[in-house]
Amino acid sequence: MCGRFALTATPDEIATAFGLQNVPPFPPRYNIAPSQPVAVIRQLQHQPREFRLMQWGLIPSWAKDPSIGNKLINARCETAHEKPSFRSAIKYRRCLIPASGFYEWQKVDKSTKQPYYFHKPQPFALAGLWESWNDIETCIILTTQPNDVVAPVHQRMPVIISPENYKVWLNFDTQTPSHLFHLFDPDLVQDLSALPVTTLVNSPTVDRPECIEPML
């Protein structure tokens, strides 16, 4: 799963990387956790790409209780099109979630897990889905099998969409899930590095640069 990530790029860097006309000011985030607001890029039909803030934790449009969003922070890319909570969103409400890196935890022994920060030289995009529930916009991150960098640490990783595939992923007219499966290949991910970091990141209340610094 992907339960934490970071976005330390500036608004100008995000605008350049994702072809946006306007990105409002926002502070760097070093430990983004579920239920918190996250940066999202979406494209509505016949509209330019836009930057939004959405709550991390998908609340399906048919939900009666918004607390369901606390459980829906990740969706498996292999089966999302089959699940009632996601099958409409993967057809009509796909989005990009900008990130500078993400965290996974490696089990060391029965009581210890070592956090790792996986990052790239430039901001990149996690594959997301979004929904609107009573005027609350929420999102979820898709996950896939790990590539060679992530596999020694964890059995899943977030789907990372390559820049050349942003248009395909956001295209409103591409509604058949089978046309998207090739985007989920973890071996397409280049320049991903793994960095062991301190357990500061274990607490969602800690959001400081020290979260992404290498463990001494």
From TrEMBL:
GO BP terms in the entry: protein-DNA covalent cross-linking repair; proteolysis
Alphabetically ordered keywords of this record: Covalent protein-DNA linkage, DNA damage, DNA-binding, Hydrolase, Lyase, Protease
Keyword DNA damage tagged: yes
Enzyme nomenclature, EC number: 3.4.-.-
Enzyme class: hydrolase
Top-level taxon: Bacteria
Keyword Lyase found: yes
GO terms, molecular function: lyase activity; peptidase activity; single-stranded DNA binding
PANTHER family found in the cross-reference section: ABASIC SITE PROCESSING PROTEIN HMCES, DC12-RELATED
Family: Belongs to the SOS response-associated peptidase family.
Protein name (Swiss-Prot/TrEMBL): Abasic site processing protein
